[in-house]
Amino acid sequence: MEKLVEMKRITKQFPGVVALKDINLDVYPGEVHVLMGENGAGKSTLMKILSGIYSPTEGEIYIEDRQYKHLTPEISQEHGISIIYQELSVIDELSIMENLFVGRLPEKRVMGIPVINKKYMMEKAREIMRLVGLNRSPMTMVEGLPISEKQLVEIAKALVWNTKVLIMDEPTSSLTLDETQNLFEIIRNLKKQKVGIVYISHKLDEIKQIGDRITVLKDGAHVATKMLCDVSGKEEIITMMVGRELKDKYHSTCCENTDHEEVLFKVENVSRADGKVKNVSFELRKNEVLGFAGLVGSGRTELMNVIFGAEKMNCGKVYLEGRELKIKNTYDAVKKGLAYLTESRRETGFFDNFEIWKNIAMEESLRTSKWSGAYGLIDENAEKLEAQKHKDQLNIKATSIHQNITELSGGNQQKVIVGKWLAADAKIMIFDEPTRGIDVGAKSEIYKIMRELVEQGKGVMMVSSELPELLAVCDRIVVFNEGEIRAILEGKDATEELIMHAAT
Amino acid sequence: MSNTKQTELIGQKKNFNYWWERIGTLLIFFLLFIVIAIISPAESNFLSLNNIINILYQSADKIVIGLGVFFAILIGGIDLSIGSVMALTGIWMGMMMNAGVPVFAAILAGSLLGGALLGAINGALVNLTRVHAFIITLGTQWIFRGVVMIISNARSISGFPQEFKQVVNFRIGNLLPTAVVIALALAAILWFVTTKMKVGRNIYAFGGNPEAAWFSGININLHRLIVFVISGICSGIGGLIITAKTGAAEPLAGSSYETFAIAAAVIGGTSFFGGKGKVWSVVVGGLIIGLINNGLNMMRVDTFYQQVVMGILIIAAVTMDTLFLRKKKS
Ligand SMILES: Nc1ncnc2c1ncn2[C@@H]1O[C@H](COP(=O)(O)OP(=O)(O)OP(=O)(O)O)[C@@H](O)[C@H]1O
Ligand SMILES: [Mg+2]
C-alpha cells in the first residue's frame, strides 16, 4: 500500500534544546498511527512540522510523491492534512458555526458576486456537530461552553474538510468516557474511508482500543515503531516510554489506623443562583483525598468555583477546621489557605508573559501579601529557589526556570501550574483535572505528592473525569449528577460501574 | 553564601532577545541621536550641552504622562483622559494658589491628590460599568475638560508666587532643571513598584491573562483602580510641569497630550496585548519624542511635518511589536 505521508530524518532545534533527533514517521491510508512519549518528548513538535507551523532544522517530508524541505500551513492543507491541536484554538468570540469555517468561509455567487454561503455553512455545521455529538445550535457562542464541548468544536473543525491525514494531538484529554467512545466511532468510520490518522494520547487504555501501529519517542529520539498487535500490553508501552515499571495504587498504607473521623473542611447546603449546583453538602476529613466524579456539566467545576470565591455563591456555608469561612473573592480564598488548580491551564491557569519561576511564585507571593495583594516586597532569590525546587520535584522539562512558559510542552505547562499551587502551601487543595496532558510517569508522581500532602494533614479534593485515576487515589468519591450529590462511595468499595450508575 | 551559589546555578542565559528586550529602545535612541547630530546644521549647536539639557527638559512632561498611560496599557486598557486631567489639576492648583494656599500645599492637593481622585473616578467607572477603558476615558476626557471650562470660565489663570515656577525651572548646579529630576524620580519610584513590589507583579499578571489572574487570587477591581490612580497621579504631575513651566494655568492646556503619552509608551515597547513593557523603556520612549521634536526644530522642519514623523513612528513601533509577537507565537 502506498504511504500517505513520510517524514524522514527529521531534526528540530530550538534555542537551547534539540526537540527532535533524526525521526522517521510514516502514515498509511486507513491506519491509526499512535504517537507516544513522555512530556516534552517532541510529539507535538513533530506534528507541528507536518502541519506546516514549524520548519524542521533537517530532514524531508514526502507527500504524494512530492518532496518538501519544509511545509507551510497552506501546502499542508492542500494535501488534505488536518490537525487538532493540543491546546484549544477555538475563538471564544465567535459562534460554533463560525469557528468551524474560520479562515475558509464557503462562497457562493449571487449575480457573479461572491458572498458567504450561510445556508451551506448551517447545514454542514449541523451535520458535523451531530457527528461529534455536540447537541447545540450552531449559532451558540463558544464563550461559556464547558471545556469538553470546546474540545468537540476543535475536533469538528478538523472534520469539516475532506481530510486524507488527520492529526489528533491529545483529543480526549478533556473528554469523558462517552464522548471518547463517540470519537472512536468517528475514527473507525474515517478509517473505512482510508483516512490516515496520527493519534497522540497519554491514556494507555485508549491505545489498544483504537491504534494499529505505535511509535514511541523519548527525549526527541526514536525508541521504537511496532504493530500494536505485537505489543504485549500497557506495561510494555510504559517501559518503552519511561524505561522502568510503575505502580498504580496510591492509597495510604495506614488507612485503618489513622483517625479518619476528624473533619477538616465542610461544605453545607451550597447552591448557585443559576441552578448548576443545588444544595450540596459534604465533609472532607483529615488524611483523606476526596474525589469528585460525574459527567461533564454535572456541576463539579461550578461548585469548586463558588467554594473558591471565583463565582457567586447564592447560599450555603463553608467551614475550615470547625470555623466558618467567609470568602468574598479569590484573594480571600488564597489568604485563608485554599488552593484551586483549575481545569483549563491556558485560559485560567498560567500567565503567558511570565517565565516559569514567576508563574510558580504567584500564589506564595499573594498569600504573604497585605492589603488585598497590593502591599508587599518581592524576594526574587527566594522565589527562584522555590521555583527551582518544584521544577526538580515535578521534573519539569525546560532549559531553566527562566524559560517562558509558552515554550514548554503541554504536559510541562501543566506541571508548572501544579507547582504553583504546591508552592502556595495551602491547607485545602482543590485539583480540577490535575493530570490533564501529563504522562504516565509524572502522573504517578503527582498521585504520590497528593498522598504526601494528606499525610502532612492537608485536605485534598480532586475532580477528575478519569475513573481509574479516582479509584487509584481517592479514599472516598463524591458522585455528581445535574448539580446534586448522588452518592458518596468509599474508595475501597467503589468500582467504575458503581460510579457510572450513580452519575447517570 | 550557599544561597548566592544556588542562584548562580539557576541564573539566566543571556541571549540576543534578552538584551534586545532590555536595551533595544535605548539603542534606537542613540542611533537617532547620532543620525540627527550628523545631519543637523553645524550652526544649530545640536551637540551643545545646553541643547542636550534642553532635550531633557522638553521630554520631562512626555516621560511623566507616558509612564501613566504605560500602566493603563499594561492591563490591556488605555487612558485617554490624560490631557484633560493635566488641565484640570493645573486649574485647581492655580485657583488654590490665587486663594492664598501655599505653593507646596497647592501642588500636593491639586496635582497629586487631584490627579489621584480623577484617576480613581476613571478606574471606578470601568469597574462599575465593565465598559472598556477606551470608552470610559474618552468620556471622561470630555467631562474633565468641560469641568475645566466651567470652573475657569474658559480663561487662563496666572499671577502665581515666584516659587511656583521654580518648582520645575530651578536649575540644580545651574544646569539640570528640576522638571527632569522630577520625571526621573517618578520613574525610579515606578520602576521600584513594577519590579520590586507585589502590586507590580500582580499588574503584569493581570495584563498577561486577566482570567488566570482572577483564578489565582488577584483582586482585579482593586488592581485596576490602582492602575488608574497611578495614571491620574502621573497626569497630575504632568499638569504641574506644563503649568509651572509657563507660570499660567490654561484651560486648553494638555490638549491632545494623550497622543504624546501613548507614543512614549508604545515607542518604549509597551505591548497593547497587555502584560509586557518596562518603565525605563518608556522613559527612553519619552526621550525619543523630545529628541525628534528638538532635532526637527534644529533642522527647521515645519511642525506640520513633525506631526507626520511622529505618526509614522507610532505605527512603526506598534508594527514591530505585533510582528515580533507573531513570530514568537509560531
Ligand atoms: N517554541 C519553542 N521554543 C523552545 N522550545 C520549545 C518550543 N516548543 C517546544 N519546545 C521544546 O521542545 C520539546 C518538545 O516539546 P513538545 O511540545 O513537542 O512535547 P510533547 O511530546 O508534545 O509533550 P507533551 O506530552 O507534554 O505535550 C520540549 O522540551 C519543549 O520545551
Ligand atoms: Mg504535546
Describe what this molecule looks like in 3D:
The complex is a heterodimer of chains A (504) and B (330). By secondary structure, chain A is of the alpha/beta class. Chain A has helices at 43-50, 73-78, 96-100, 118-132, 147-159, 177-192, 204-210, 234-242, 300-307, 330-335, 345-349, 356-367, 380-393, 410-423, 440-455, 467-473, 496-503, and strands spanning 5-14, 17-27, 32-37, 58-63, 66-68, 81-84, 107-110, 113-116, 165-169, 196-200, 213-218, 221-227, 263-271, 280-285, 289-294, 315-320, 323-324, 338-341, 428-432, 459-463, 476-481, 484-490. In chain A, strand 16 (315-320) and strand 17 (323-324) form a beta hairpin. Chain A starts with a strand and ends with a helix. Residues 252-257 of chain A have low confidence and may be disordered. Chain B is an all-alpha fold. Chain B is built from 14 helices and four strands. A two-stranded antiparallel sheet of chain B has the order 1-4. Chain B has a two-stranded antiparallel sheet with strand order 2-3. In chain B, a hairpin with a 3-residue loop joins strand 2 and strand 3. The longest helix of chain B is centred in the middle third of the chain and has 27 residues, at 103-129. Adenosine-5'-triphosphate is lined by residues 14, 17, 19, 37, 39-45, 86, 397-398, 407-412, 437, 439 of chain A.
Q: Notable features of this structure?
A:
heterodimer; A: alpha/beta; Rossmann fold; 3 domains; six-stranded mixed beta sheet; 34% helix; B: 330 residues; mainly alpha; ABC transporter involved in vitamin B12 uptake, BtuC; two-stranded antiparallel ribbon; 2% strand; globular; disordered N terminus; binds adenosine-5'-triphosphate; binds magnesium ion
Write the layout of secondary structure elements.
The complex is a heterodimer of chains A (504) and B (330).
Chain A: E1 5-14, E2 17-27, E3 32-37, H1 43-50, E4 58-63, E5 66-68, H2 73-78, E6 81-84, H3 96-100, E7 107-110, E8 113-116, H4 118-132, H5 147-159, E9 165-169, H6 177-192, E10 196-200, H7 204-210, E11 213-218, E12 221-227, H8 234-242, E13 263-271, E14 280-285, E15 289-294, H9 300-307, E16 315-320, E17 323-324, H10 330-335, E18 338-341, H11 345-349, H12 356-367, H13 380-393, H14 410-423, E19 428-432, H15 440-455, E20 459-463, H16 467-473, E21 476-481, E22 484-490, H17 496-503
Parallel strand pairs in A: 3-10, 3-11, 6-9, 9-10, 15-20, 15-21, 18-19, 19-20
Antiparallel strand pairs in A: 1-2, 1-4, 4-5, 7-8, 11-12, 13-14, 13-16, 16-17, 21-22
Helix pairs in contact in A: 4-5, 12-13, 12-14, 13-14
Chain B: H1 2-9, H2 16-39, H3 49-74, H4 82-98, H5 103-129, H6 133-152, E1 157-158, H7 162-169, E2 171-172, E3 176-177, H8 178-196, H9 198-208, H10 210-216, H11 220-246, E4 248-249, H12 257-267, H13 279-298, H14 303-329
Helix pairs in contact in B: 2-13, 3-8, 3-11, 3-12, 3-13, 4-5, 4-6, 4-11, 5-6, 5-11, 7-8, 7-11, 8-9, 9-10, 9-11, 12-13
The complex binds adenosine-5'-triphosphate and magnesium ion.
